[in-house]
Design brief:
By secondary structure, the chain is of the alpha/beta class. The chain has 9 helices and 7 strands; from the N terminus they run αααββααβααβαββαβ. It is globular, with a radius of gyration of 18 Å. The structure holds zinc ion (2 copies).
């Protein structure tokens, strides 16, 4: 019966190469995933070959969030898997990707009051039919016995894509884009995004949460883009 249940959630062949695999990815393809093992503890930026725990930018100008965790680097084959989830509504990919995250969860610094996926604008949500960050965060929240909050934070305006914008243009672009009244009096929140690029959106959200009385804001994402990759935000 268990085998029957897992068939409901997982494809029986590897999503990447097609060989028989029970967990969505075969061992060989799973071993090829770009892990983000050595990263800035504040913003999850991959740090290659340095002994520092914090990147130069966070040392100079720390973000509004307190810590960030992103188990993978945004590179192939994850780029392909995430775009399949996002644009082709291959929701099966969400279970496989969420399980990859679950297997790598770090020790938590206190139990968060909730996991809060970055909201999409209602119009975008209607077009796409789902929020990929919600689909990824849901199994994680369930496994951690932490509530998934998809309603307290609302996106008030659809912001134009931020590709090519300077830091101050991004800030202006995001100003007043979200609303969060903190009616639940949260003190510790995990913000969740599928891909973290510059972190401008997450930084803006963290600033808003802190203004509304949240003491600790952590950011979790599946994949962290390196600074020269501006395809996502
Ligand atoms: Zn494979
Ligand atoms: Zn950093």
């Amino acid at each position: 019966m268990l085998a029957g249940i897992s068939k409901l959630f997982y494809p029986s062949s590897c999503l990447l190469c097609g060989v028989l695999a029970s967990s969505g990815l075969c061992a060989a393809c799973a071993a090829e995933l770009p892990e983000n093992r050595c990263a800035c503890s504040r913003c999850a930026l991959p740090l290659y070959g340095t002994e520092n725990e914090i990147c130069g930018r966070c040392l100079k100008k720390p973000p509004a969030f307190d810590a960030a965790w992103s188990p993978f680097i945004y590179a192939q084959p994850l780029e392909w898997m995430i775009s399949q989830l996002k644009f082709n509504a291959k929701l099966l990919q969400a279970n496989v990707l969420a399980e990859l995250m679950m297997n790598r969860l770090p020790a938590l610094s206190g139990i968060p009051d909730c996991i809060m996926p970055v909201p999409l604008h209602p119009q975008r949500l209607r077009q796409r039919g789902f929020n990929q960050s919600v689909e990824l965060a849901r199994p994680l929240a369930r496994a951690q016995h932490v509530p998934l909050d998809v309603s307290s934070c609302r996106r008030l305006r659809a912001t134009p894509p931020q590709t090519g914008m300077t830091a101050s243009q991004r800030r202006r672009n995001l100003r007043g884009a979200f609303e969060f009244p903190n009616e639940q009096n949260y003190a510790h929140v995990v913000l969740f995004d599928d891909v973290m690029t510059t972190g401008a959106t997450l930084n803006e959200l963290a600033r808003l949460l802190k203004r509304q009385g949240v003491h600790r804001v952590e950011v979790w994402s599946l994949a962290r883009a390196q600074r020269n990759n501006k395809k996502y935000d």
